[in-house]
Design brief:
Blueprint: H1 10-17, E1 29-30, E2 39-40, E3 48-52, H2 57-62, H3 69-81, E4 87-91, E5 96-97, H4 103-110, H5 112-125, E6 132-135, H6 138-145, E7 154-156, H7 166-180, H8 226-229, H9 235-242
Parallel strand pairs: 3-4, 3-6, 6-7
Antiparallel strand pairs: 1-5, 2-4
Amino acid sequence: MAEFDPGPTNAFATHWDNRPSYASVKARFRMNWGPIYYRGRLDGSAKVIIIGQDPAADENVARRILVGSAGQRVQGFLRKLGINKSYVMVNTFLYGLKGQIDAEAKTISASASIKNWRNQLLDMLKTGQTQAVIAFGTGAHQVVDLWPGAAGLFVAKPLHPSFRDDAGLRANWNTVLPQIRPNVTPEVAPDMTPYVGNTFKKADLENIPARDFPFGVPKWMGTGDMAWRTSPTQIAWKSLAADG
């Protein structure tokens, strides 16, 4: 039977239905596709809470966060921790941010309605199984600093997977991973090899598992990014065509 994510339970669905309004700050966000909420386990089994920044094109289509190239880098990061299922991911913002995390974006993130709603969500995600929170990027670093519930969890603040300097990003992750490993119980054998070289290669990535997607998404979802898939020479399109 094909794996897929059945969606949120009643408690999460209710909380997301009561999301804060972004109307007063809509000029900073791409809101046409609506909010994108999460990816991963909502059943209380998550050992790791991942905090990202905001959704982009792939996320809009998939209706799940961190599924494009940044998400596949994060999935590879989790593989190095020996975590392949027990995680849940949420973003700093529900909508795609126009531009980078700057002073204005931080002010929006810290506003009472957005901060308090997000903290309530994080409180719902944190269970007795949760061991660590990994906040990727400047926006997420602020989120975890603003969340009282982070107390008692190991907190890591690596660079965002879309950080523009691949060499610097890889060096940062090589430093952070050994700090996290002793604080998270692996599900499978961790990949102890450090990132080598100055650029990400396919071997450094991990495809997004089907269980993280809603039912019926195409097979190529979670295997590349929008630019990668729009080239007719790429493997994803060839594979899709071969499957008929």
